[in-house]
Amino acid sequence: MSGQPHEAGDAFDPRRNTHLEGHVTAQKLLLDSWNSGRMHHAWLIGGPPGIGKATLAFRMARFVLTKGLPGEQEMGLFGPPPDPTSLVVDPDSPVCHRIASGGHADLLTVQRTWDEKRKRFKRDLPVEEIRKIAPFLRLTSAEGGWRVVIVDGADQLNPSGQNAILKILEEPPSKALILLVADNVGAMLPTIRSRTRKLALEPLTEAQVKALLFRYLPDLEEVERTALARLAEGSIGRAMELHAAGGLTLYKAMLGVFDSLPRLDVVNAYAFIDATLRGGNEEANWVAVTELIGWWLGRVARAGARGTIPPEVVPGEAALVHRLMQGSQRSGNLDRWVEVWENTNHMFAKAESANLDRRQTLMSVLSRIEAAAAG
Question: Residue 340 burial by CB count (10 A; 0-12/13-18/19+): exposed, middle or buried?
Fold first, then answer.
């Protein structure tokens, strides 16, 4: 859950969202570190996109900026207060309100900016943003407690940006907490990984994604929640993005094209491409349909390798996958699906980087899928 605009509005923004589904083990590790009195100064929170990494980081920031205030840990009439047993902070507390409004002087958030035209975050996190961290940490805490830095999208830093982070990690100031959020921890410098405590978050369960969809989009039908949860594979962020982009409608239309396989209905294929890439939603539809095709091909490839049909997203899908697998087994060509999946991802990436014709790219991909289905 990265903070991008969503139909659910502010409730989904990690800065404002005080609800976190799952990730009990990660929360306990943070809490135990705090209660030990030896809180590590830097944490690397990793895991797939949209599972709650940034939401966890802001939850920890609220906790530290509340519990780390003068007086919170002082001796009372009956001794020191008991160790906290939860990271949850009262949503009505002044700290929560100031963080939600972006007005807490002891919290610095660094993240990629939203590209309104392309409906996605910009690819890179500028090093200029990272250079704001050191001066911030040199300041005296405005409230006499801790200072917290959240870097959301830390794996998108170029080498200069990562080296700037590294210098801060090598000489951390006292009572400072740095939370690095990354989809791809492996993209971070080994020296950064060695100087941080790592929290590896797992994808959410289907039930957890459905519960969150009910929370943020209560008007959705149960069948839609189930379909989105299966498409999202443990990512509430992806489920919300697909819903906002009409992903279920696109997915059903895509399967309608594939239903004629192993022989592609060319007229239907072109109609699908034209409907997807026309009008004011071309950019969002392009992103959604390329992800959906890649995701579906990955499912087909895994189904062939495992010999099992995955749960349906929409009715009739299992029969289609079963028919394709039977055809591949007869031809002894199950590996073809892995190959077409890899080639498709490469073609979509090339179309994006080289600004190739999108309609032609989609038709080429559909032709490759037809070839794989024909064996």
Answer: buried
